[in-house]
Write the structure tokens for this entry.
Amino acid sequence: MASNILRRYTSISAVVDILRRKELPLLDPQTWDDRNDRHFMALYKQARALGGLHGLCAAQCPETYHHWRVFTGTADGACIAIRRDRLEAALALLEGVRYEEVEYLKLEQVERLTPADVNRLPFVKRLGFAAEEEYRVVAETSEAQGPALSIDFPRSMIDCIYLNPWLPRSIAASVRETLRSLPGCGNIRVSRSQLIENGRWKAAGDKVVGKRAPKKIVLKHRR
């Protein structure tokens, strides 16, 4: 069963822009890191005689160390957990927009593709990227290619915003308050990722070796 949460890894500054504008940007695929991916997107754009082609990539799986390291740039990283059902309901109303889970192929499989498979090109990648568990939104336009194309993104689509686990706690607290202070954002959940430092995980290890949690010291006022 597919998860109802999609994770869009980005930067803290991009999150601020998304919250203020209430728009989600789809980018020019030619800025993507995977050159095979860029090539297939360019071929698809040419085959469909499109003016512009833009895409957004998200992960379907729970957070991983790989996703944080590769897609966020560590200390400035953030992740928007998006309610998939609400996003897809909105995307279904937009002309020229497609959204699918990415299919991962071996070289011999991609070599068997034919001209009848042209519509698959934006949603296939090499098997070596399978750990990304990618979900992709692609928008086609007749207008000339631009660096980005934005779609409406009401805050009700956001389940939670996660700050990267390398962010010092004090700074994370400040960023959390800053995001919540934006107009209409007071109720948005903002949490620092505990992927690399989790209290419950540590406590379980302490229990194995018989280490007890330190007692809380209660200070009493003298009369």
